[in-house]
Design goal:
Layout (H helix, E strand, L loop, with lengths): L2 H10 L8 H9 L3 E4 L6 E8 L6 E9 L7 E9 L7 E4 L2
Antiparallel strand pairs: 1-2, 1-5, 2-3, 3-4
Length: 94
């Protein structure tokens, strides 16, 4: 994740960073579900439920995939959510 994106998350979602920075990596490494964004083409929402964050919250990490050679992936933002937003589920943990 770039410094600029980390700064964005700290400014826009201070309830997530810096306290739960390790949960962003945990969500990307072992998500509960991956959904297509209903708001942004090419974006995927990786989500994982954590019981120990504010009486239970999802960490949602939004990853954008670029078009063209290499199909680069990058974190756009991350946030905490009580409920997940709409979006077609591409993958779900059994």
């Amino acid at each position: 994740m770039s410094d600029e994106r980390e700064r964005h998350i700290r400014e826009r979602h201070p309830d997530l960073l810096p306290e739960y920075s390790d949960r962003i990596a945990g969500t990307l490494l072992a998500p509960d579900a991956v959904r297509r964004s209903s708001r942004s083409a090419g974006a995927r929402l990786f989500s994982r439920w954590y019981n120990d964050i504010k009486d239970g919250k999802h960490v949602v990490v939004v990853v954008l995939t670029g078009q063209g050679v290499g199909n680069r992936h990058w974190v756009v933002t991350a946030y905490l959510a009580r409920r997940l937003a709409e979006g077609e589920t591409e993958w779900k943990k059994d």
